[in-house]
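I need you to check the entry underneath: sequence plus fold tokens. Let me know what the token row says about the fold.

>
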Amino acid sequence: MFEGLFQPTHLILVLAIALIVFGPGKLPDLGKALGESIRELKKALNEGTSPPKELSRPSVPEERAEQTPKQQA
């Protein structure tokens, strides 16, 4: 179904239509906005997979010297 969709001639045609519709002045702004959107999406996806930094606690060694001895019955 999508075998010939991304051929170079198709991409050139799409870019030419975008140039006609948006004009040469707007294309850099559109590219910048698209790049920033993709960057923010990747950042959000990476933050969702790693544990939050504020919730992770360093391990504290147990103080066994202060434990009370068991009473003998």
